[in-house]
Amino acid sequence: MKQLRGFKYRFYPTSAQRLELAQTFGCTRFVYNWALALRTNSYYQDQVSLSYTDTSNALTKLKKDPEKPWLKQVSSVPLQQGLRHLNTAFKNFFAGRNKYPRFKKKNNRQSAHYAPNAFKWEDGKLTLAKMSQPLKIRWSRYFTSEPKSVTISKDPSNRYFVSFLVEEELEQWNSSTEEIGIDLGIKDVVVASNGFASGNPKHYQKYQARLKTLQRRLARKKKGSNNQYKARLSVAKLHAKIADCRLDFLHKLSTKLVSENQAIYTETLAVKNMMANHKLAKAIADCGWGEFLRQLEYKAKWHDRKIGAINRWFPSSKRCYTCGHVLDKLPLEIRKWTCPSCNSHNLRDQNAALNILAIGRSLGGFPHTRPNQEAVGQTVFACGSSSGGDVSLTDLAILG
Ligand SMILES: [Zn+2]
C-alpha cells in the first residue's frame, strides 16, 4: 500500500544558507501576516470575503512596491504556499474546526514550504531555490521515492529541520489476532485490558523546577538585549528537550500497541475541556494523550488495524467487568475495589479497560472516523473520564 509520509531530519545550514533562510522565513511570515490583515479588514470594512486567488493577485502587486524590494530576493514559492496555508486556516475556521487564524510571531517556530518547482532533488541531495549548495542533512533513515514537497523549519531553540513529504510503499506489520481496550490516565498514560501499564515518565514535571529557574532568569533580562536572547534560547532548548522525550515515549508506546493488536478500543476524550482546568492542564499536557491518539490512528491506518472509540459517558470504571454491577460512586483516589455483588477484586484502570474492550467488541467494526488532515484542530478525540459521568476535574488532580 502506498502512503504519504513525512520524513523529518535535522540539518546544519552554512552561514550563507542561514542568512538566506532567515530572509525566507521573515518574508513568508510577513506575507502571511499581511494577507491575514488584508482578509480580516476586508470582512470588517467591506463585508467581502477574499479568496486565495485574491490574496495571490494582491501579492503580485505588493511585490512591485518599491519600498519592499526584499520580497523579491527570496523564492516566491514559500510566499505562495504561505497564502495557501492561510486559506486552509480560514476554511478550518469557517467550518468550526479551529480558531480564527493568528499572526505569526518571530520567536515561535518558523517555517517555509517548498513545492517541487522550488527545490532540486538529485543523488540524495537537496538544494533549495536561491541556494547554490545542497543542505547538509543528518540522515537518520532513508526513503526511496521522489519528495512531493519539502518543509524547512527552525524551532525556537534554533534547530533547523527539513521535512520531506514522500509517497512510499509501506511494509505492513503482520496481522494479529489480539484486541485490547485501553484506559488513558495520568498515573499510567495507558492501562490495557491485558494488564499492560505504560507508566508515565512525566517529562515536564521532571524538568519543571529547572524550567522555572530559567524562566525567572529570562524575566530579569533587559528587553531586546543579547542576554535576553540567550536566556530565551535556554528556555526554548529545555522545552524542546521535554517535547522530544515525550514524543519518543509516545512513539514507542503507540508502535507497541498497534503492532501487537488488530483492534484497539479507547474512549473518546474531551482534551480541550479538561485542559480548561488550570490545575490539571499541565499534568494532562504532560501525558500527550492527543498526540498519542493521533499516532495510534495513523499507525493503525498504515497497518490495517482498527481503532474504535466508545462514548465517554459509559461508566467504564464504575462497572464491574465480571458481573456488570455498577457502583454509585468511585472516587478517583480508589485504585482497587471489591465488587459488592460478586466479590471480585477489580483494579480500577484495568477493569475500565476491560469494559472498554467489551463495549468496543459489542459495537463491532464501527469505523472510528476522523476527518482528514484539515480537521486536525478539532476535538475529535475528546477525552473522557474513565470513571464515567461523574468525574470532576479536580478529582483527577489527585492522580497527578
Ligand atoms: Zn462484580
How would you explain this protein's 3D organization?
This protein is an alpha+beta fold and 400 residues long. It has two domains: 2-169, no CATH class; 179-200 and 259-399, no CATH class. Helices cover 41% and strands 18% of the residues. It contains ten helices and 15 strands. It has a five-stranded antiparallel beta sheet. Strands 9-8-10-12 form a four-stranded mixed beta sheet. It has a two-stranded antiparallel sheet with strand order 3-4. Helix 1 crosses helix 3 (76-94), helix 4 packs antiparallel against helix 5 (226-260) and helix 5 (226-260) crosses helix 8. The longest helix is centred in the middle third of the chain and has 35 residues, at 226-260. Zinc ion (ZN) binds at residues 320, 322-323, 325, 339, 341-342, 344.
Brief overview:
The chain has 400 residues and is of the alpha+beta class. Helix content is 41%, strand content 18%.
Number of DSSP strand runs = 15
Percent strand: 15-25%
Bound small molecules, deduplicated: zinc ion
Radius of gyration, CA atoms, in whole angstroms: 24 Å
* Percent range of helical residues: 40-55%
How do the helices and strands follow one another from N- to C-terminus? EHHHEEEEEEEEHHEEHHHEEEHEH
| Average pLDDT level | 87
Q: How many domain modules?
A: 2
Q: What are the main properties of this structure?
A:
2 domains, 4-stranded mixed β-sheet, 5-stranded antiparallel β-sheet, 400 residues, binds zinc ion
Layout: helices, strands, pairs:
Layout: E1 2-11, H1 15-46, H2 52-62, H3 76-94, E2 110-114, E3 119-122, E4 125-128, E5 137-138, E6 147-154, E7 160-169, E8 179-184, E9 190-192, H4 203-220, H5 226-260, E10 263-267, E11 269-270, H6 271-275, H7 278-287, H8 289-302, E12 306-310, E13 336-338, E14 345-347, H9 348-362, E15 382-383, H10 393-396
Helix pairs in contact: 1-3, 4-5, 5-8
